[in-house]
Amino acid sequence: KTAEDVLALMSKAQMERKIGETKMNKQSSRSHCIFSMRVKAKSTLADGSGTMDFNGKLHMVDLAGSECAKTASLDKASGAEAARERERMNINRSLLTLGR
């Protein structure tokens, strides 16, 4: 409800954010974060005859980075690289879903 509440929620989300090093980016987002905020305001009309309500919704989105297998050097994945390959495929799949 207050600016402090919003900042506390965003700080908590930042701490939960998953990052990992890729060939292209040392701090690549490895998870999606969607923060939605409903904004409400009320304004008094200039002639004093009443008020006007304003409503809106603000979405802030941090999408995990997509990467192709060639660029990520994961063509022949094994062990820990296999887990990173599955992560890469899941991120790309979810980005495609968000785009629909």
Number of helices: 3
**Overall radius of gyration:** 21 Å
End-to-end CA span: 32 Å
The average pLDDT score comes to 77
The helix/strand order is HEEEEHH
Q: Could you estimate the helical fraction of the residues in percent?
A: 25-40%
Provide the structure class.
alpha+beta
Strand content: 25-35%
Report on the structure:
The protein is of the alpha+beta class and about 100 residues long. About 35% of the residues lie in helices and about 30% in strands. It is built from three helices and four strands; from the N terminus they run H-E-E-E-E-H-H. It has helices at about 5-15, 70, 80-100, and strands spanning about 20, 30, 35-45, 50-60. It has a two-stranded antiparallel sheet. A two-stranded antiparallel sheet has the order 3-4. The chain starts with a helix and ends with a helix.
Annotation keywords:
single chain, 100 residues, alpha+beta, two-stranded antiparallel ribbon, 3 helices, two-stranded antiparallel sheet, elongated
Walk me through the topology.
Elements lengths: L2 H14 L2 E2 L7 E2 L3 E12 L6 E12 L6 H4 L7 H19 L2
Antiparallel strand pairs: 1-2, 3-4
